[in-house]
Design goal:
Elements (H helix, E strand, L loop, with lengths): L4 H6 L14 E4 L3 H7 L4 H22 L3 E8 L7 H24 L3 E5 L7 H14 L6 E8 L1 H17 L10 H6 L11 E4 L18 E4 L9 H12 L9
Parallel strand pairs: 1-2, 1-5, 2-4, 3-4, 5-6
Helix pairs in contact: 2-3, 3-4, 4-5
The structure holds farnesyl diphosphate.
Length: about 250
């Protein structure tokens, strides 16, 4: 009897332990530009292919039972890129959101954007608000996209929001603990990432989820983001399952 490809793709590879999968995977999708250059293509083609890689990873997480995926799509520092590239990326985010919303609904994806969303183009803000509103009752995979996001800036805005509540007399200084602090981060309610994957070789966190990443296992691969496929993800998960996570204990 032949097993269809789709059945095979949906199955967790047998060497992975389904009880020890990360419950939240975060990705720094680096290397789109270098990938494009190597193919003799313009940089924007790398970003386009990057969207396909992200879609595949989202589906793979769903198939393999990983409940949360967070992707770093645009950092507060990325505004420093050439204006044509920034404009292309903003247009790409908007177009992808519009195009994929129906499928995300069908696949029960709950999408959320984190970052300084007010600093994004108005039409993108509207598309973001619509996608979050339409998918808010979905109970499948939690897909978070960090856009105009900076970890230091997120921590600062949480401090300001907490200070404001203290000033209003709503909160006592002594009551500020880790839980209260986390409630004021963009990621409130989301479990912290167990695994951070960075593609394209750089060994940096690049201002991504600074607070949330305290105990994440970090996996860096030389593979460029557009080439990061199921096989590469399988390798990352196998590597993760070999780690001894002690959380500061012996
Ligand atoms: C880094 O590669 C990648 C980005 C700054 C953009 C990533 C965005 C996407 C893949 C689109 C995601 C879309 C949605 C809707 C979530 P780079 O350009 O820094 O590569 P380089 O280091 O080789 O130049």
């Amino acid at each position: 009897m032949t097993v269809s490809k789709s059945v095979l793709l949906e199955t967790l590879p047998p060497d992975l332990d389904c009880n020890r999968l990360p419950q939240h995977v975060a990705v720094i999708m680096d290397g789109n530009g270098r990938w494009a250059k190597r193919q003799g293509l313009p940089r924007f083609m790398g970003h386009r292919r990057g969207v396909d890689a992200l879609k595949d990873l989202l589906r793979c997480c769903k198939d393999w039972g990983i409940p949360a995926l967070t992707a770093y799509a645009f950092s507060t520092e990325n505004w420093g890129r050439p204006s044509e590239e920034v404009e292309f990326l903003m247009m790409l985010f908007e177009r992808v959101l519009r195009r994929e919303l129906k499928e995300m609904m069908a696949e029960n994806v709950k999408i959320r954007f984190v970052g300084n969303l007010a600093g994004l183009p108005r039409s993108l803000q509207e598309e973001i608000a619509r996608s979050m509103e339409d998918t808010k009752e979905n109970r499948g995979i939690q897909f978070t996209v960090a856009t105009n996001y900076g970890g230091r800036q997120e921590i600062l805005q949480a401090c300001r929001a907490i200070a404001d509540r203290v000033r209003q007399g709503e909160l006592q200084v002594d009551a500020i603990d880790e839980t209260v602090f986390e409630d004021h981060l963009y990621t409130a309610g989301l479990t912290p990432p167990d695994l951070l994957i960075r593609t394209s070789g750089e060994m940096r966190i690049s201002n991504f989820l600074l607070w949330q990443m305290a105990y994440a296992e970090i996996y860096v691969t030389q593979t460029a983001w557009p080439d990061f496929d199921r096989k590469a993800f399988h390798q990352a998960l196998a590597n993760y399952q070999q780690r001894d996570r002690r959380f500061g204990k012996v």
